[in-house]
C-alpha cells in the first residue's frame, strides 16, 4: 500500500478534487480530516467513499487532541492542508470563523505536526512534508500596468480572509525557519471547476443563468482575476509535494487574466448553447450591484518559478475549462441540490438583498 497522506479540508472544493485526482492517478492512500462546515460536502467524494485506501474523519483542525490522535493513528508521510474558511464576502460579514480556522487552526495543526514529526525516525523525518495551500490574495491588489505577483512580492492582504491566510503563511514560514519542519507553501490564483460551492462567482453565475435569475456583478465588472482549472491546481500541488524544496513557496496560476464581466458573458453564452431556450439571451440577466467593500482590483500570477524548477504547466485553457465546468453543473443537479440547503439559501437572501 502507498504511504498515507493526511488531507485537511478534503470535503471542500479543491480538497475533494485533489483526493479524487490522487486516488485516480496514483492510488494514494488518504485520510481526510474535515469539519464539514457549510462548504464541506461528502457527496463530492461518494465515488471513493468505500475504497480501502481512503478514510474520513470529521473534526476541527483547531482541536489539538484530535489532531494528535489522528497523526498517531494514521502516521502520514505528508500533510496537505486545505482546510480554511475561503469566501471573501463571508469574511467581510463575519471574520471570526476565519481567525479561528485559518490562523488558530493552522497554528494547532503546525504544533501537533511538529511534535509528531520530531518523533519520527531519521529517514522518515527527512522525507516528511507539510504542504500549505494558500492564495494569491495575500499579495494585495495590482494596478492595470503592474507586473504579475511573484514569490518575492511583499505581502499586502486587504480582506479579513486574505489577512488570515497571510498570517497562516507566516506561521508556516516560521515553523520551517525556526524548527526545520519541512514545509512547502503554494499561492494560487482563482480556481474553478466541478464541486465548487455556488457562493463563488462561476458556479453562482452558471446556476442563476440556468434558472433565469439576476446575475449580480459587483461594481463595474472590470475587476480582474487569473483563472485556473481545479485539476491543474491539484497537479501543481502533487508536483510540489513530490519535487518541491522544503522552505520554498511556489506561485500557481493560469496566465488567464479576465475581467469578471467577460467571464459572466461567456458563461451566459455557454448556458444558452447547452441549455437552449427560445426567449432572451442569458446576458440580459446581468445586473450591476453594489461593490464588495475593499474589492481588490486585479490579481495576476507570475508562475515562472514552478514551471522552470518543477516543470509544471496548466493543461486546460480557460475556454475548454469553462465549457467543462458549465457542462458539469448542468449535468449534476443531484449534487447542486445537496449543497443548496437552507443555510445556502439564507446566505444568498441576506447577501444579495440590498
Ligand atoms: P472550501 O471553502 O470549498 O473548502 C474548505 C473545506 O475546509 C471545507 O470542506 C470545510 O468543511 C473545511 N473546513 C473549514 N473549517 C475547518 C476546520 N476548522 N477544520 C477542519 N475542516 C474545516 O475551500 P476551497 O476553495 O476548496 O479552498 C481550499 C484551500 O485552498 C483554502 O485554504 C483556500 O484558501 C485555498 N485556495 C483557494 C482558491 C480558490 O479559488 N478556491 C485559490 C487559492 C487558494
Ligand atoms: O484568488 C484566489 C481566491 O479566489 C481564493 O483564495 C478564494 O478562496 C476564492 O474565494 C477566490 O476569491 P475571490 O474573491 O476572487 O472569488 P469570488 O468567486 O468570490 O469572486 C470572484 C470575482 O467576482 C471577484 O472580483 C468578486 C466578483 N463577484 C463575486 C460574486 C460572488 C461578483 O461580481 N459577483 C458575485 O456575486
How would you describe this protein?
With 354 residues, the chain is of the alpha/beta class. 45% of the residues lie in helices and 16% in strands. It is built from 13 helices and twelve strands. It has helices spanning 13-26, 64-74, 88-93, 96-118, 122-127, 160-179, 201-211, 230-243, 260-274, 304-310, 318-331, 333-339, 342-351, and strands spanning 4-8, 29-34, 54-58, 78-81, 129-135, 183-188, 190-192, 215-218, 224-229, 249-252, 257-259, 286-289. It has a seven-stranded parallel β-sheet with strand order 3-2-1-4-5-6-10, with helices on both faces. It has a three-stranded mixed β-sheet with strand order 7-9-11. Strands 8-12 form a two-stranded parallel ribbon. The radius of gyration is 20 Å and the shape is globular. The structure holds nicotinamide-adenine-dinucleotide (NAD) and 2'deoxy-thymidine-5'-diphospho-alpha-D-glucose (DAU). 2'deoxy-thymidine-5'-diphospho-alpha-D-glucose binds next to helix 7 and strand 8.
Summarize the structure.
This protein is α/β, with parallel strands linked by helices and 354 residues long. It contains 13 helices and twelve strands.
Question: How is this fold's topology laid out?
Answer:
Blueprint: E1 4-8, H1 13-26, E2 29-34, E3 54-58, H2 64-74, E4 78-81, H3 88-93, H4 96-118, H5 122-127, E5 129-135, H6 160-179, E6 183-188, E7 190-192, H7 201-211, E8 215-218, E9 224-229, H8 230-243, E10 249-252, E11 257-259, H9 260-274, E12 286-289, H10 304-310, H11 318-331, H12 333-339, H13 342-351
Parallel strand pairs: 1-2, 1-4, 2-3, 4-5, 5-6, 6-10, 7-9, 8-12
Antiparallel strand pairs: 9-11
The structure holds nicotinamide-adenine-dinucleotide and 2'deoxy-thymidine-5'-diphospho-alpha-D-glucose (DAU).
Nicotinamide-adenine-dinucleotide (NAD) binds next to α1, α4, β5 and β7.
Amino acid at each position: 500500500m502507498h504511504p498515507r497522506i493526511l488531507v485537511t479540508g478534503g470535503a471542500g472544493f479543491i480538497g475533494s478534487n485533489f483526493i479524487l485526482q490522487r486516488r485516480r492517478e496514483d492510488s494514494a492512500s488518504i485520510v481526510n480530516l474535515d469539519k464539514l462546515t457549510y462548504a464541506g460536502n461528502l457527496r463530492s467524494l461518494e465515488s471513493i467513499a468505500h475504497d480501502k485506501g481512503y478514510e474520513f474523519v470529521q473534526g476541527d483542525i483547531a482541536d489539538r487532541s484530535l489532531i494528535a490522535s489522528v497523526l498517531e493513528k494514521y502516521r502520514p508521510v505528508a500533510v496537505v492542508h486545505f482546510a480554511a474558511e475561503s469566501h471573501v464576502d463571508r469574511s467581510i460579514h463575519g471574520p471570526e470563523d476565519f481567525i479561528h480556522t485559518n490562523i488558530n487552526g493552522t497554528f494547532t495543526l503546525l504544533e501537533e505536526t511538529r511534535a509528531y514529526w520530531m518523533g519520527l525516525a531519521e529517514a522518515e523525518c527527512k522525507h516528511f512534508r507539510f504542504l500549505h495551500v494558500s492564495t494569491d490574495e495575500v499579495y494585495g491588489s495590482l494596478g492595470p500596468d503592474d507586473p504579475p505577483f511573484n514569490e518575492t512580492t511583499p505581502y499586502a492582504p486587504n480582506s479579513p480572509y486574505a489577512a488570515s491566510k497571510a498570517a497562516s503563511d507566516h506561521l508556516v514560514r516560521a515553523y520551517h525557519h525556526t524548527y526545520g519542519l519541512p514545509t512547502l507553501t503554494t499561492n494560487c490564483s482563482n480556481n474553478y471547476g466541478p464541486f465548487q460551492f455556488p457562493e463563488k462567482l462561476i458556479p453562482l453565475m452558471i446556476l442563476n443563468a440556468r434558472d433565469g435569475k439576476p446575475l449580480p456583478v459587483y461594481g463595474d465588472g472590470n475587476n480582474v482575476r487569473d483563472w485556473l482549472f481545479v485539476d491543474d491546481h491539484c497537479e501543481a500541488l502533487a508536483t510540489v509535494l513530490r519535487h518541491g524544496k522544503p522552505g520554498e513557496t511556489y506561485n500557481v496560476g493560469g496566465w488567464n487574466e479576465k475581467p469578471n464581466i467577460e467571464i459572466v458573458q461567456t458563461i451566459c453564452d455557454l448556458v444558452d448553447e447547452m441549455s437552449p431556450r427560445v426567449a432572451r439571451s442569458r446576458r440580459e440577466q446581468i445586473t450591476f450591484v453594489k461593490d464588495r467593500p475593499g474589492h481588490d482590483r486585479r490579481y495576476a500570477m507570475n508562475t515562472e518559478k514552478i514551471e522552470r524548477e518543477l516543470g509544471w504547466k496548466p493543461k486546460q485553457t480557460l475556454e475548454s475549462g469553462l465549457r467543462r465546468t458549465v457542462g458539469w453543473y448542468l449535468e449534476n443537479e443531484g449534487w447542486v441540490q445537496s449543497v443548496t440547503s437552507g443555510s445556502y439559501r439564507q446566505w444568498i437572501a441576506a447577501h444579495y438583498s440590498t
